[in-house]
Structures are given as C-alpha cells and as structure tokens.
Amino acid sequence: MGQEKSQLRIGIILSYINMLVGNLIPFLYTPIMLQLLGQSEYGLYKLSSTVTSYLTLISLGIGSAVVRYLIDAKIHDGEEGERKVFGLFMIIFRVIAVITLIAGIWLTLNIQIWYGRSLDADQLFRMRILIFIMVCNTALNFLLSPYISVVNAHEKFIFLQSMNIISTCVGPILNLIMLFLGYASIGMAISTIVLGMLVNILYLIYVRKSMKIRPIYNNISFPLLKNILKFSFWIFVANVVGQLFNATDTAMIGAIPQLATEGVAVYNIGATFNSIMSSLTTGITSVMAPKINNMVLSGKSGKELTNLSIKVGRIQCYIMMLVITGFIVFGKPFIYYYAGKGYEESYWVAILMMIPNMIPLAQTVCLNVVIAQNNHQFRSIVYLVIAIINVIGTWFLMQIMGVIGAALMTGIALIIGHGFAMNWFYKVKSGLDIEHFWIEVGKTYIIPIIICVVFCIVSRYIDFYNIKLFFIGIIVYTVIYSVLLWQFILNEYEKNLFLKPFLKIYKKFQV
Predict the structure, then answer these.
(1) Are 130 and 193 a contacting pair, CB within 8 Å?
(2) What are the b/e assignments for 80-109, b being 16+ CB within 10 Å?
(3) Nearest Cα to Cα of residue 163 among 128, 201, 117
(4) What is the CA radius of gyration of the chain?
(5) Largest CA-CA distance found in the chain, in angstroms, rounded
(6) CB-side exposure of 443: number of CA atoms within 13 Å?
(7) How far apart are CA 240 and CA 386, in angstroms?
C-alpha cells in the first residue's frame, strides 16, 4: 500500500514536471520553428497531422478499454487472467495496425480529392510524404500501445511519467536538429517516428524484463472480445466526436482556398494555447484513472465519487483560471512575441476555445466515472449530435468570419454539449451531486474574474508590448492571484496539499 501511494504521489509530481517542461519548451521552441518553417509550411505540417489523426478512429475506442479490462482481470482472475487479456489486446491492436497502414496508404494516394483546389502541386507532393510518414507512426503506436496500458494499469507512474518527460524534452530537440539541417516539415515527421519507435521499445522492455509480464495468446475468450467491443463502441462514438471537435476545423480550413495553409497556421497557434491549458489541468486525472476505476468497480457511493470530483476539480480550476485570465490580459502581446506578425487572430481563436473548454476540464473526474461505470452511451450520442451541428455551423461561419468563426462555433457546441447535456447526465444517471460540485468549484472563479477585470482596465494605460513591462506585469499578476486565492479561496486540504512537499524538504534540512 505504501509503495502504491508513493507511486501515485511521485507520479503526480512527475506529471506536473512533464507539464511544466512540456509547456515551457514550446515558448522557446515554437518561435524558432515558425521562423525556420514559415507560416505556409507550418500550416502544411499541421494540416497533414490533422488529416492523419482521423486514422486513430480505426481503433474503435478499444484503447480506452485496455486499462479497465486489465484491472478487472487482475482483480477477479489473477495474474494468468490478466496475461490472457493482455494477449487478446495485443492481437486486436496488431489487426488495427495493419488496417491503419492500408487505409493510410489509400489516404496518401488520394489526398488531392480534398485539397486539390486549395494546395498547389508542390504542396500536395510534400503533404503526401508527410502523411505517409505519420501513417507509419500511427500504425507503430497502435502495435505496441497495450504495453503502455499495462504500465498504467499497474500504476507504475514513475516509469510512465519519466518516459513522458523524456519524450517531451527529446522531441523538440530532434525537430530543431532536422530544421537546422534544412529538412523542414518532413524532417520533423521523421524525427517523430524515430522517437516514437524508441519509446515504444523501452515500454516493451520494461513490461517484459522489469514487470515480468508477457501476453498469453492461447485460449482467446470470444465472449470477452464481444464485451470489449460492446464497451468500446460508445467510446468510439465519443472519439468520432472528439475528431469532429478537435480536428475537423483544421481540415475544413485547409480546404478553403482563401484560408488554406496560412489559415491553418493561425488557427493552430490559437488552438495551441487551448491545448496548453488542457495539459496543465489533466495531469492529476491521468494518474487518477486507475483509482477511479477501482472505486467504481468496488462499489463506492456517489457521494464519495462527488467528493473526489470536487477535490480534483477545484485544483484544476486554480490552474485554469490563472492561465485563461492571464491570457485575456497579456495574450495579445504574448502572441506577438511568441509567433510574430500575422497571427493576431490567434488571440480570439484561443479565447473562444479556452473559455468553453473550462467546463469539461473541471469535470474530467466526472467523465472518468462515467466511463468506469460503462455508462457513456448517452454522452456519446449527445456529443455526436452536437459535433455534427458544429461541423455544419463551422463551415458556414468560416465563410463569414474566417478562422474566428470556426473557433466560435466550436465554443458554442462545447457549452451546449458539456455545459448543459452532460451535467444533466452526471446528476441523473451517474449519481453525482452536480449542484454541490459547481457550488464548490464555482467559488474558485470569483477572485480570478475580479483580478482579470482590474488588470484589463490597467492594461489600457500600460504598454505591455514593452517586453520589460510585459514580464513585470505577468509576475505581479501571478503574485496577486496566488496571494488572494490563498487568503480567501483555498481550504485547509488544498493548503496542506501545496505545503506538504515544502514542509518535507524543510524537515530534511533540520539538524
């Protein structure tokens, strides 16, 4: 038990180190990359990545089922049962990898169907190369992904997060080497597949040599396979929705001649800040997933699950509100320093995506509860309907407002789907006390909003495009935010959570 707690505690610390590094590196890496690639080539790279991402749907959502069924087999059938389930998933993902490769080759050869009007011949040729490399990387990741799930299911968070940190640090370094050597976006795609191959091999070695777990391929349980497919179907629908929300905007922007790769670049710079906010707030949830599964499978009450949701949700909101309110105040000059001229609309893209996204990010534990309960059909259906509306609305709004229209429609869809429909579902079907959740979590919004309004007024009289004033402003904002939240919002549990690591360090240095 003590070792498991240590793994969880150190895993959370490492996850936040990974997030810190993962969000600090882009500040240094992205401006250099944009200068070396240029707006059009960066847009082409992002467009290729987006198109290739649709191939992840071939997994049919089974990836989300691996951890759950490994844990369930371990609890009820012991080590041998777990190894049989492991073997079943290895077979499934080998089939998925082959299908992905075949579909990806077809996609590579027929990309002109969608982008023949918006891209010239040279861009189409480079896009084919990029997509083929990315397809190979996707198939490789599918092939070995069950090994990562085994590490996660056994809560080996130290190794898991250490590998994430290595990937986060090494990836940009390899990309920059390729860019300085003159290989542009194709070099970046090659470095990604090389790094992915090495990381996957390390997971394989760790599971087989250190954890001493090997898959068993005989006596495949077809009833179990049927249950996995049934469980995964609604996650697959949710993944389709995720693609419609997260990727289709970029895919459609690239198909419009007046926007094309430049529009993709502007949109993705704005979306990057939304991704940064998401990554900063999902670190705890990523390591809490096995615990949530165990709580649900062990029959914990709705009250206990609600309390866990509130604890995690409040901590996530402290981080979210600092990021989003700070971005509202300092975002325009930051994008100027970060990406240069030509990306002014990225500010509004980011704002229109970040604010609605606060709702699901505060409720990531609630979502994990729904998945663990195998109760996510309604969620998937609602999201699918909203996503289809989003795609249709985005296409028309883009004709009027360009990339800002795409972000606006996505934000509206998020509010309808996550804000209204899912909160009703959490309350009625999942047994969570959603009113109590929002009362407790909502308290974390009040002071940040007041600080943001005050600083927006102050920014009218201070030129934050002056680099010195810009950094001073961010420091002052962060200090005021932290002090006021500590004084008026944080409860004793949260204060102890932040103080405990420092108290332990202090005691170690006591004579």
Answers:
(1) no
(2) ebbbbbbbbbbebbeebbeebbebbeebbe
(3) 201
(4) 23
(5) 73
(6) 16
(7) 12
| DSSP characters over 63-132 | GGGHHHHHHHHHHHHHHHHHHHHHHHHHHHHHHHHHHHHHHHHHHHHTTHHHHTTTS-HHHHHHHHHHHH
What is the enclosing helix (H) or strand (E) of 149? helix 121-153
Strand spans (E) along 121-271: none
Tokens at 400, concatenated: 């009027």
Alpha carbon distance 127, 287 (integer Å): 36
Report which residue type is found at 308: L
Q: Residue 439: in which H helix or E strand, if any?
A: helix 434-442
In this structure, what token pair is assigned to residue 37?
A: 């690639």
SS (H, E, C) 296-329: HHCCCCHHHHHHHHHHHHHHHHHHHHHHHHHHHH
Please compute, for residue 69, the number of CA atoms within 13 A of its CA located in the half-sphere on the CB side. 24
Q: Which amino acid is at 230?
A: K
Q: How many residues does the chain have?
A: 511
Residue from 147, 118, 254 nearest 210 by CA: 147
3-class secondary-structure state, position 25? helix
Q: Which two tokens stand for residue 376?
A: 């996510």
Instruction: Compute how many other C-beta atoms are within 10 angstroms of the C-beta atom of residue 75.
Output: 14
pTM above 0.90, yes or no: no
Q: What tokens were used for 241?
A: 């929705």
3-state secondary structure of 376: coil
Tally the C-alpha atoms within 13 A of residue 367's C-alpha that lie toward its C-beta.
Answer: 21
Tell which residue, 178, 192, 194, 195, has the closest CA to residue 32: 178
pLDDT per residue, tens digit, the chain (511 aa), is: 455 556 566 766 776 677 677 767 777 788 888 888 888 898 899 999 989 988 888 877 777 778 778 887 788 777 788 788 888 888 888 999 999 999 999 999 999 998 988 888 999 999 999 999 999 999 998 888 888 888 887 777 788 888 888 888 899 999 999 999 989 899 999 999 999 999 999 999 998 888 888 888 877 777 878 888 887 877 787 777 778 777 788 888 888 887 888 888 999 888 888 887 887 766 666 656 666 767 776 667 778 888 888 888 888 888 889 999 999 999 999 998 888 888 889 999 999 999 998 888 888 777 777 777 766 677 778 778 888 888 899 888 988 888 999 999 988 988 888 888 888 888 877 778 888 889 988 898 999 999 999 999 999 999 888 999 999 999 999 999 999 998 888 888 878 877 776 666 556 555 4
